[in-house]
Specification:
Two copies of one chain form a homodimer. The first copy, chain A, is α+β, with helices and mostly antiparallel strands. Chain A has helices spanning about 55-65, 130-150, 160-175, 180-190, and strands at about 10-20, 25-35, 40-45, 45-50, 75-80, 90-100, 115-120, 190-195, 210.
Chain lengths: ~230, ~230
């Protein structure tokens, strides 16, 4: 028999930062809280972990319940546990990040939230709890992943043009890149397949690409840290 | 008043993976459990988070209580929360990783553990809970950090020779590197200062180096992922 011993029990939540590129802007999905504390304030979607579900299952369930989003790849970010981060109780939160093509999400506010909406990261309202810190952490991770992995391509359609790629890098880094150098760098990585394009148009159509399979987990797409 | 609402409460622990290079081997610090469950089995040092301490404070306290280790830089790794990972109860664990020069640690087993010892990662005993999975995750992160950050240098003395660096890379990756190419690669990064060396010895002393300040957070030290 396991020995009985007393130990303290905090509550545990999951909170999810979902990014998407919409109307040429980097946006994050927020919910308006329907319950205290911070009732009516905007917050990241999330909620308490149930005893019988894993952390990732909890994140997927909360995301679906609060926003309607489904079938989204989630990546664990960081666990925040300052003793005073929630006025109700000791609440530790395990945070997740997701990138999505916003077409995949049919928004509908549901349990515990009164509204759900995409916000440009330049126009984030005052957020509940320590959610500003969580969002800042997620943004840092997102930019890091854009530099060092091919994750950016998951925000594009399966076939894309070189200017589609350049565009999302410019949006995420808030910065213009020289077209020729950018194209040259991306091509040098040898991670793209050329796709056939329809020839029956009168103008010259842009070249289409798709991402190769089995590219390395870490690959320096573009170097910005030193610039 | 915050609205009262019932929510489930799991227990939360921290577990710590500390790596060091000892006798030319990569080692991890383990404790022998003094209590059930898994009494007498080896495990990562760790324990329950107290209500008034942050997660990092909990990790530092447990590390000190169980092993005597103090003043060690910790980095959060990942939070593991499968519902069945602890036979006692629903226990979610927030894991941390540390790298240290083993000279800094004076080992002494204390609360809840009967023994504390460095194990070579080639000779890890059967571990309690899901600790094999946590250790595997930590090893992956360690190797990744050796490839893409200057963290390896924190395991060396302040002044070191080029063969000291090569040696810890060979130990961590279980692989021999060509001396000339390795030196050339490290030198090309421009992250080292040359240190003066004593000339009053009859043999030719090896060149000494130290790590420059303010080098980028992410820097490709050596490329292994594709090889």
């Amino acid at each position: 028999m396991p020995e009985k011993k007393e130990y303290p029990k905090p509550a545990v939540t999951v909170d999810i930062v979902i990014f998407s590129i919409i109307d040429k802007k980097l946006k994050v999905l927020l919910v308006r809280r329907g319950l205290e504390p911070f009732k009516n304030m905007w917050a990241l979607p999330g909620g308490f972990v149930k005893m019988e579900e894993s952390l990732e299952e909890a994140a997927k369930r909360e995301l679906h319940e609060e926003t309607g989003a489904q079938d989204i790849y989630l990546e664990q970010l960081y666990t925040f546990g300052q003793p005073d981060r929630d006025p109700r109780d000791r609440v530790i939160t395990v945070t997740y990040m997701a990138l999505t093509n916003s077409d995949k999400i049919k928004l509908h506010a549901d349990t515990d939230v009164s509204e759900v909406k995409w916000f440009s990261i330049d126009e984030i309202p005052k957020l509940a709890f320590d959610h500003p810190k969580i969002l800042e952490y997620a943004l840092k991770r997102l930019r890091w992943k854009f530099e060092y992995t091919s994750v950016a391509f998951s925000m594009l359609s399966e076939k894309f043009t070189m200017s589609d790629i350049q565009s999302i890098y410019e949006i995420v880094f808030h910065k213009k890149f020289d077209k020729r150098n950018f194209n040259k760098k991306i091509r040098s990585l040898n991670i793209l397949n050329k796709e056939s394009i329809k020839k029956d148009v009168s103008y010259r159509p842009p070249k289409l690409y798709s991402l190769k399979k089995n590219i390395p987990e870490v690959i320096e797409i573009i170097k910005l840290s030193n610039s």
